[in-house]
Every structure is written in structure tokens, then in C-alpha cells.
Amino acid sequence: MMQETLLAFEKVSLSYGGIQALRNITFQIPKGEIVTILGANGAGKTSCLRAISGLVPLKAGTVRYKNEAISAWSSKKTHLVAGLGIAHVPEGRGIFPELSIDENLDLGAWLQKDPQVIAKNRERVFHLFPRLKERQFQAGGTLSGGEQQMLAIGRALMASPELLLLDEPSLGLAPQIIHLIFKIVQEVNASGTTVVLVEQNAHLALQIAHRGIVLETGELTLVDEAKNLLNNPKIREAYLGNS
Amino acid sequence: MSVTQKSYFTWSIAIFLGVLFSEVLYPGLNGYYQGILMVAGVNIMLATSLTLINGFTGQFSLGHAGFMAVGGYTCASLTIYLLPKLGLSPLGIGFFYAAALIAGGIVSGICGYLVGLPSLRLKGDYLAIVTLGFGEIIRVIFLNVDAIGGARGLTGIQNFTNQRWIVACTLICCFIMFRILGTNQGRGMQAVREDEVAAEAMGVNTTSTKVGAFVMSSFFAGVTGGLYAHYYGYLNPSTFGFMKSFEVIVIIVLGGLGSVSGSILAAIALTILPEALRPLQEITKVDFRMILYSLVLILFMLLKPNGLLGRHEISYYWKKFRRSKT
């Protein structure tokens, strides 16, 4: 592999109480790619993202970001991980419902001190999602599901992240909106941001991703290029719904 | 006008009104009304400072009276035991009093830090119980320490607090609370209230934000305690029971959790209401006041469940009103 590795899992295990969510997972995420994590419910997709941003402590193993073992100091210190340029869009979006869209975006730029950069990022977010500009002063909670997802992604982009973690952005959205959001994820990626995408909709995710990671009840079963996975009969049967 | 100019303008008006009130209006009133207004000032400070925790940061503290007691006793002990030994001029006494108020606030803030650090991992009801416990512990400690009066209460506190002190401290307290809202720190607090995980993912250190709000809030509760002590000239542990904390909670819920101007209005209204109902007692010959007071609270909550101003400041409604007219 020629590409530089941005993030690496080394024998990562993670458990919630007695339930083991991840077992001995090892994979690399190359810089500049879209990598999608696939798997059924409870396979450990979300746990992978939580392990990266330090929302849950690891049981064993290491998560390395730019060769630094962030898992050593990141457990329960998510705000420090955010400071490294890792933006996590949590499952269920996690927007701030009582705050206006503007304030939501401001909070996305919490660690960004340079007002010029903030203004530039805001411009970019409004360019990607013109909808948000129309509703700038409206409370986040009054947006539709799709708009909330746009806001969640937009807010994450305010931090000008190097690594964007998206947890099921298509959850509960109309197909049209999903296509729009995936198109934007591709645009964001094209401008240099590495994306880790957790998805139920494997077909769509593999179409925009460079690489896929397949998890099954907490174990890594397959890592391959997306187009190979799309043609892999086993994957087609298990996740794509046609043989 | 730009936003900053506008806020300078608003605050100059507020300061002007404060001076007008304390120098012209207040001396002309009779002692009864003066007393009510002083209590209103104290309540405004308590309410706005508690808004920081319960309103902005979304935590639930029931220990505000405890922090007030810590500040009150600290400040009063300083003026009783230390001040006479220094032999200061009247101006020096003024400065000493200001320093003692701040010292009371700082000690109270330290207590806030000590209570907040371990307990702010808790949420909602659980945090409420811990802070309630803290308030009671403080009360029982003061009840049993003889050097500061114990159950007899602390007497011999000089009446340093006049309307100028109250007005100045109230203005400073409100100013800081309003300003915090606009800062990055204030936004972080609101983010913690709305969604802790998302706030953390944005890089907000939720623990330090919560503890910071707690310390700030208990600091002002402490200063208020000092003012309170030197207004009445007497402190008794029973004043700082959990009913006192509840009083403040009622004020901020009624004013709208998360609205500084709402809690100011509610503090004034709820201080005046029991007194305004007094003439009724003379007509009916029975004290219906507390029944009516409670009824007003119940009706108000039924008709306006989000409180007087909801989560917005008064300027929001003013803008809305102006927009609807054009």
C-alpha cells in the first residue's frame, strides 16, 4: 500500500459491562479515502467510532491517529480527540435543538479561534447546504430530519476536520435526501477530508466508498476495496439483498 | 448601532437607572418598601446566579442556600473578628467590606468546586439529591459551631449593606450573567444542556464547563450571603434550610429556565407578591396569603409551562414585537 495511514486499529477490544462489542480488531484507514464500516445490527460499527473518539474506554489494543496512540489518553476525554481534527457526527445527529442553526455552527467551531477561518467554514457549509442558510436563525429542533442531518454534518465541518466520522447519516431519511447527503460526503472527501462512514445501507455506502470494512458480531471478517466488495457474492447475499 | 454599541447603551441606561434609584427614589420611600426592595435585590442575585447552573448548563442544583450560608458566615466572621483589630478609616472600612464580600464569594466558590467536581458526573435527580445533602450539611455544621453563634445565630454584625451596595452588586451580577451567554464558554454551557455527547464531540470539555458554572454560581451566592448578613445584622442557620433553595428554584422556573431577564422579573414579582397580598388579610381577617401565593404559582405553571420568558431574553420579545408592528 502506497498511501499514508491516518488511523489504525491494533487488536482493539471493547466491551460494555459483560458484553463484548469488539474483538481483536485490526485495520488501517488510509488518508484521503472514504472508508465504510458495514455490518448487521450489533456488529460493532458504532462502537468502532466511539472507540476512535474516546467515548468509551478500550479493553485492550490501541487506536493510533497519525502514529500517536490516542487510545492511551483518550478514554473519557473526547474533547481532546476533537482537538486533533477528528469530528464525530454521532448517531441520531445530536444537534442542539434549542439553539439556532447559527449557534449550532458556532459550537462546531468551538476549538477554532481564528474568526477568518470560522467565517470561511461557515461560507462553505452554507454553500454545501443552502437550506441551512435559509433557516439560519431558526432553532435546530424545528428542522426536518434531513435538514437536521445536514446541520450535524455542517457543524462537524466547521471544525475543518481531517477525519470525519459519520454514524448512519441515512437513518430515517427519504431516498432523495440520502442521495444528496452522500453526494456531499463525496464532495467533502474530494476536498481532502478522510471519511469513516458507518452505514446500514451497504449498497449506497459501497458506491461512494473507496474501501469497506465488514464486521460480524464484533469481529472483523473482511477488508477490501469497495468495488471488490460490491462484486463479492458473499457480501451481495448478506448485505446487498440479491444473489 | 452595532451590537457592542447597543449593549454599551443598554448598560449605561441600566447604570443610570440604578444610580437614580439608589440616590433619589430609594431615600424617599418608607422603611417597609425599602425592605421589600432590598430583599428583591438579594433574590435577583440568587436567581440569576442559579440560572447559570439550572438554566444554562442544564444541571439541577438544590444547594444554593448552602452556598449563600457559606458566603454569609465567612463575610460576617471577617467583619466581626478581623475588622475591629485593624482600626480602619470609614473609607478603609468600605474597602474592607468589599474585600470581605469577595472573600465570602471565593470561599463559597471553593465549596462549589469541592462539591461540583465529584458530583457533576451525576445527572438530574441524582445531582439534585447530592446538592440538597450539601446544603443540609452546611446548615448542620453552622448549627453546631459555637464560635459563630451555633443555634443562637450570629449576632453583632454591622449593617454595612445599604441600597448602594445592593444596587451595585445586583448590576455587576446581572452584567456578568448576560455577558457569559454571549461568550464561547456560555455557548459551551448551553451545548452541555442540549446534548452532552455532541458537546464533547465538538471539543467542549463538559466536566470543566459544568464545574466552572458551578463555581461561578456559588461565588455569587456567597457574595449575596455576605450582603444579606450585613443587611439584617444577624445570621441564623435555619434561614438557610432547603426551603430557601426551593424559593430560588421557584423563581427561576417561573421566570423561565435559562432566561436571565426572566429570572430578574420573577425575582421582583415573587418578592412583591406576598407583600401585595397583605391588604387582603385585613379584609378577610384570615391569612389566605400563602394559599393565594401557591394558587398563583400553580395557575401560572398551567398557563405558561415554560415560565415567564421561556428560554429567551426580554430583548427577543422586544424584537419580535417591533417586527410584528412593521
Give an overview in words:
- The complex is a heterodimer of chains A (243) and B (326).
- By secondary structure, chain A is of the alpha/beta class.
- Chain A has one domain: P-loop containing nucleotide triphosphate hydrolases (Rossmann fold, 3-Layer(aba) Sandwich), CATH 3.40.50.
- Chain A is 39% helix and 26% strand.
- In chain A, the strands form 2 sheets. In chain A, strands 6-7-8-3-9-10 form a 6-stranded mixed β-sheet, with helices on both faces. A 4-stranded antiparallel β-sheet of chain A has the order 2-1-4-5.
- In chain A, β9 (211-216) and β10 form a beta hairpin.
- In chain A, α4 runs parallel beside α7.
- With 326 residues, chain B is mainly alpha-helical.
- Chain B has one domain (31-325): Orthogonal Bundle (ABC transporter involved in vitamin B12 uptake, BtuC).
- Chain B is built from 14 helices and no strands.
- In chain B, α6 (163-182) runs antiparallel to α9 and α10 packs across α11.
- The longest helix of chain B has 30 residues, at 90-119.
- Chain B is globular.
- The two termini of chain B are 19 Å apart.
- The model of chain B has no long low-confidence stretch (mean pLDDT 89).
- Chain A binds chain B through residues 53, 55, 78-79, 82-83, 87-90, 94-99, 103, 106-108, 110-111, 155, 159, and chain B through 184, 187-188, 190-191, 193-195, 197-206, 311.
Q: What's a quick, concise take on this entry?
A:
Chain A has 243 residues and is an alpha/beta fold. Helix content of chain A is 39%, strand content 26%. The longest helix of chain A is centred in the C-terminal third of the chain and has 16 residues, at 175-190.
